[in-house]
Structure formats: C-alpha cells, structure tokens
Amino acid sequence: MKPMFRRIWGLMYRHLALYRRSWPRLLELCYWPILQMCIWGFTARFLAARMGNPGLMAGATLLGGVLLWEVTLRSQMGMSISFLEEMWSRNLGHVFVSPLRPFEMIAALIAMSVIRMLLGVVPAILLAWGLYAFNLFSLGPVLILFFINLMIMGWSVALGVVSLVLRHGAGAEPLAWGVLFGLAPFSAVFYPVSVLPTFLHPIAYALPSTHVFEGMRAGLLLGEIRWDHLAAAFALNGVWLLAASYLFARQFHAARVSGALISIGE
Q: Closest Cα partner for 245 from 115, 158, 177?
C-alpha cells in the first residue's frame, strides 16, 4: 500500500509545487467564487431592502445556491484542469511510463480537486458571513452531505470531460470550462424545480445537484432536512460515477493502444 500512496502523493506534489510560489495561481482559485458571492450578495441585500423579510429569505437562498454551486464547479474544474495541465506540459507519456496506475492518477486528481475547491470556496463562505451576515454553516452537519454530493457530481462530470479529451484531443478542452454551466438551468440552483416546464422535470430530477439544492432550500426556508432528496442524490451520484468511470476506462485504454497519450495536445 505504501508505494501506491507514494505515487499518488508524488503526482499531487507535482501540482502543489506549482502553487507554492505562484500567487497568481492562488488568486485564481478564490477569485471567481468571491466575485460571484459579491455579485449575488449585493443582489440579496437589494432584495432585503426592497421587500423586507421575504426579500431577506430570497437573498439567503440565492447566496446559498451560488456558494453550493461553486462547490460543484470548483470540484469539476479542479479535476479537469489538473489533468489538462498534465496534457499541456506533455507529461502524460512520462507519467504512464512510471508505475503509476490510472486509478492512482484519478485519486491524485480527486485529492487536488478537493484542495482547490476548499481554497476557492471556504474564503467565499467566510466573506459571505462577514459581509452579508449569511452563515451557510447554519444548515448544520447536513452541509457536509451537501458538499460530498456536489463534489462527487463534479468529479463525475470531470471524468466525462477527461474522457472526451482523450477521445477528441485538444478540441474538447473548452468543455472543461463550459459543460457544467449547461447543467445549471436544470439543477434548480436559484429556483425550485416547479418553476421549470413540466417536460423538463425528469431531466432535472436525474441530476444529483437538483436534489441537493431542493434540500438546501428546505433547510434555509423551512428548517427541515429532506432526507429523501439526500438519498436520491447519493443514489444518482453512484450511477453517474460508475458511468463516468466506465467511460474513462474505455477511452484511456483506447488512447494507450493508439499512442494518443504521447501525442495528445499536439
């Protein structure tokens, strides 16, 4: 087991070393979450000033939605971009000449995704508390379960993006930045699923994130924990992660056989 953990740590250290003396990289991690939080925080304050208590509750759900959505987004982008950095540096061939196994690389990318997500989202959560008196931690321990579900969904989407990059090369790189935004309208981040047209409800409820945000609103507005939504989110995440892992395994094998691991990105 120790050699496996050393290999995972070795790949993690290669990425961590990039941040050790690069303040622009560190700034980039928290820039967008804080910017989004500020924009929606001012919106929440405007609603509270114009509408009173209903506006205050609406603003709280907006801030809660944007902060939790950043968990998904940063988890997905943290994993995808860590892989792309290996591709951009023409390092994939060198990595897999070593004894590193594919699942060990995925484990290292997941660990880097967690680190990047925490460095980006936690400062935004603390600033929302300080600037707008919005305490996301008021949801209680269930917040951890929300985070876990959103991170797993982010990793599933990232594995899908990585698989497409292995299949289509550099042409699929823009998906690392845009694919998750395409799911946002169906994830009910800022509004309940009931707002969507009826024919879109099955699509919305097929997304783990939808159940998390429905549960978040129930916690903020009603003070109750929707265990049914949490159970559905975990079940769907299991399906998503299995499907994404299968897709990655197939595309990785095809790329290794065809030699694309060496030439990808050129």
A: 158
* 231 DSSP 8-state letter: H
Q: CA dist 111 to 68, 118, 140, 151, 232, Å?
A: 19, 11, 24, 11, 25
Rounded-to-integer distance, Cα 163 and Cα 169, Å? 10
Place of tokens 């903020």: 220
**Residue 143, both tokens:** 């917040």
d(CA 34, CA 253): 39
State pLDDT tens for residues 22-51.
Answer: 888 888 888 888 998 888 888 888 877 777
Judged by DSSP in three states, 199 sits in helix
CB atoms closer than 10 angstroms to residue 239? 12
**Is the CB of residue 177 less than 8 Å from the CB of residue 77?**
yes
Q: Rounded CA gap, 150 and 209, in Å? A: 6
Please provide the size of the chain in residues: 266
Inter-residue contact 150 to 209 (CB < 8 Å): yes
For 184-199, the pLDDT digits (tens) are 899 988 888 989 999 9
CA distance 245 to 77: 17
